[in-house]
Amino acid sequence: MPSSFDLWRADPLSFIETALIDPESGEPFVLSDAERWFLKFAFQINDSGRLKYPELVFGAIKKSGKTTLAAIIVITMVLLYGGRFAEAFCLANSFEQSQSRVFTMARRIVEASPLLKAEARITADKIAFTALDATIIAIASDAASAAGANPTIVCFDELWGYVSENSRRLWDEMPTSPARKISARLVVSYAGFTGESLLLEELYKRGMALPEVGPSLRAGYGMLFAWHTAPIAPWQTAEWVEDMRRTMRPTAFARQMLNEFVTSESTFIDLSAWDACVVLTSPSVERQPVWIGVDASVKRDSTALVAVNYNQKSKCAALVAHKVFTPTPGDPIDFEATVEHTIREWKKRFFVRCIYFDPYQMVATAQRLRKAGIKIEEFPQSLPNLTAAISNLFDLISERRLALYPAPDIRLAVSRAVLSESARGWKLSKDKQAHKIDVVVALSLACLAAVRGEGSSYCLDALASWGDEEAKAPVPGWKQAGFESEAEAELYKARYRAQHGPTSQFPWG
Fold first, then answer.
1. I need a surface site. Which of 27, 78, 198, 440 has the fewest CB within 10 A?
2. How many domains does the chain divide into?
3. Beta strand pairing status for 289-295 and 120-122?
4. Residues 226-232: what's their mean pLDDT?
5. What are the CB-based long-range contacts (under 8 Å, 24+) for 382-389?
6. Does the structure show a pLDDT above 60 at 137?
7. Is 78 part of any domain?
8. Average pLDDT rounded to a whole number, residues 262-278
């Protein structure tokens, strides 16, 4: 490597701001004040030639450039301080990433920096600097893959998500190495969940007990700890923060935008946001495409069905119909007389595109409905599935893309719905056992099926342009549009135009 690397060791900030190129701008990096303060201490060497602060923690709010800063530190530590055979390991947050974002950013920086690119061999999971026999490696987030490492630096990205026993073992397998004079462990993250993100909480409590050495910066006993609760980057404008405040749940905003640890439970949605979506005077016109969600229970909880329409162009959903059945002691719900009967009735009134249901209670019902020609898809209520459904419903409500008719029973259920959030995902629960929130779950399933366009493999725009020529084609336009007959298509067109005007566009999607 160039001899100037030895000179840069005495001034690592000069190396970062001259030799390293920002892959986004193509220009040398411009460090923020918060980054300069952290880096001023991060590379300090004690009298024995070791790092003064081998435990490095940089906490900051969302979009502060944490990943880029971590990649810069990893590259600098390997090239300027690691010597021959230096090794860096970048670990992914197993709940968020398949490969470390820090490693990806390090690779981009090396590729964008002519001085480094000329000396590097880059593969999918390794950056090798041949002159030093030094490497930066991305490894899986499991303890077995990390065992026996002798690292110059290890980087843990978004430590809030390391909540499993296996992730704790991974942390224990990757301490600083006493066999190396230069060995560090770096953490970049924002806050996690009280009582769940235990590893990060421990570091936070330890760091906050240290004496201050700079703005939002503490150091001592081998640890350098930065914890920023306000914007530190020029692109984190006040307007952007306010936009995040409007669109994020309060607990998510506190954790990601204020860098505060939060409890895992909170109210699902503010009722003012729900009420703002009540813009329809009554359920929507019949003979329109609908997606249905079913949350079923035989004996204890209620069983709910919700039908929604979705406009692909406006990205808006509309509540079309709902039904709730509540069992009584000694009188469990008869699915054939309730769920099946309702769905068959809705099939006569609407064009049922797809039904999402949890197969736990409804296997036999689903089989009978499929025989009747109704598209019904299993949607197991696993945590990833519930996270997708709940987050989609939250977005539709908070962005006012869900049109509702007055429904006091759904509003009551929404007021009783509690969002339980963890590093693995979201699920809805209730304050009291007697409360019923099944209709909210069913609404979330229906909306997700609609947004995904389940059951819409036919041409969604076929009906809008359907005419005599299409009717003569081998596959008629009315069939492409999902109607069962030409008469059904004509009936819908007549009713839709009667309500919306003769020149109105059809709301397919």
1. 27
2. 3
3. unpaired
4. 97
5. 383/424, 383/425, 383/426, 383/427, 384/425, 386/425, 386/426, 386/427, 386/428, 386/444, 387/425, 387/426, 387/427, 388/448, 389/441, 389/444, 389/445, 389/447, 389/448
6. yes
7. yes
8. 83
Whether residues 173 and 299 share a domain: the answer is no
Over residues 368-410, the pLDDT tens digits come to 888 888 888 888 888 888 889 998 999 999 889 999 999 999 9
Separation of first and last alpha carbons in the chain: 58
CB 82 within 8 A of CB 49: no
The answer to whether 280 touches 410, Cβ cutoff 8 Å, is no
Task: Tell me: do 496 and 406 sit in the same domain.
Answer: no
For 318, residues 6+ apart whose C-beta sits below 8 A from its C-beta are: 280, 284, 308, 309, 310, 311, 402, 403, 404
Domain of 152: which CATH number? 3.40.50.300
In whole angstroms, give the CA distance from residue 430 to residue 413. 9
365 closest CA partner among 400, 334, 396, 336: 336
Instruction: Write the DSSP symbol of residue 336.
Output: I
Tell which wins on pLDDT, 191 or 380.
191
**Residue 357 forms beta bridges with which residues?**
294, 378
Euclidean distance between CA atoms 255 and 189, whole angstroms: 11
Number of other CB atoms surrounding residue 87 within 10 Å: 20
Domain containing residue 440: 271-452
Tens digit of pLDDT for each residue in 59-85?
Answer: 999 999 999 999 999 999 999 999 889
Evaluate whether 456 touches 353 at the Cβ level (below 8 Å).
yes
Q: Are residues 78 and 209 in the same domain?
A: yes
Q: Find, among 63, 56, 294, the residue nearest to 186 by Cα.
A: 56
Which residues are registered as beta bridge partners of 403? 318
What is the C-alpha to C-alpha distance for residues 332 and 338, in angstroms, rounded to an integer?
11
Give the integer Cα–Cα distance in Å for 105 and 148: 25
- The reply to whether 350 falls in a domain is yes
Task: Kindly list the strands in the beta sheet with 351-357, ordered across the sheet, starting from the edge strand earlier in the chain.
Answer: 376-378, 351-357, 289-295, 303-311, 316-325, 402-403
Query: Rounded to 5 degrees, what angle do the CA atoms 72, 74, 80 make?
Result: 90
Backbone angles phi, psi at 12, to 5 degrees: -65, -30
Amino acid letter for position 96: E
Whether pLDDT at 466 is above 60: no
Residue 480 lies in a domain: yes
Retrieve residue 71's tokens: 């990649």
Q: How much is the pTM?
A: 0.65
pLDDT band at 230 (very low <50, low <70, confident <90, very high): very high
